[in-house]
Amino acid sequence: MFVFFNGEFIEEEDCKISPYDRGFLFADGVYEVVKYTGKRFFEFDSHLMRLKTGLEFLKINFPGVNKLSEIGYELIKRNNLTGMQSILYIQITRGESNPREHLFPGKDTLPTILVNVKGFSNKQIEKEIGISAILTEDFRWSKCCIKTVSLLPNVLALQKARDNNASEAIFVRDGYITEGTHTNFFAVKDGCLLTPPLSDFILPGITRKIIIKLCREINFPVFEENISPFYLHTLDEFMIVSTKADVTPVVRIDDINNITQVRRIVKTCPGAFTLKIQRVLDDYINQ
Fold it and tell me: Where exactly are the structural domains of the chain?
């Protein structure tokens, strides 16, 4: 497989990153994940805007953001993925810093750029029958709105979910749901779509944004409001959304940490509104 690494298209096995790279030493970098539908990259401009926001927040100087779309299509071509669903990963770190120290390296330090693409198998069965999730305390840092490579809390929470026979962990902070480890969270109540409002603790998901837009276009009421885990059992439907998950129903939520007094919430099948949102998003992606 070909990757794009620091200005060149090279074979994946030839890609070597310094042990002094700040992404390795300090998780000092940002990333993006973009879906290729088989015809085009989905919402690439939105992903690039979010990437720029992250780079500016971390004060990483990378002027080549606008060339990433061209690089992505070239990788699709070189890896013979035209016509196939694929996922593009973009990772940018501050670059190499030797000797190791916390302070930023000199302004002449070049960032490390890695772009790679892989074929993607859409998890259709999960989208049809739903998944299980757990609730867990949100112990991440206070700028989850920035898509950094500092994902250890997410990794630990997702592993906890898998160890408890679930596919996703839903974070709870200060008495309210924030998001999943790699997804945004939605619920349905009385024919209305609910999702936590954007904050420093919630990533502004691209799929989240598109779903809100599409639902409002078809007059499906959407409310961005805090969701208390104590009232989850009163809601009608749950779903997680992301670039890779699209809209995936959540049919069981286990409270393994006793955050609430309801240990398990079960929805026997994906709800009618979840299925409708799935169809609307699929139509939009494939148009």
Answer: 2-119, 124-286
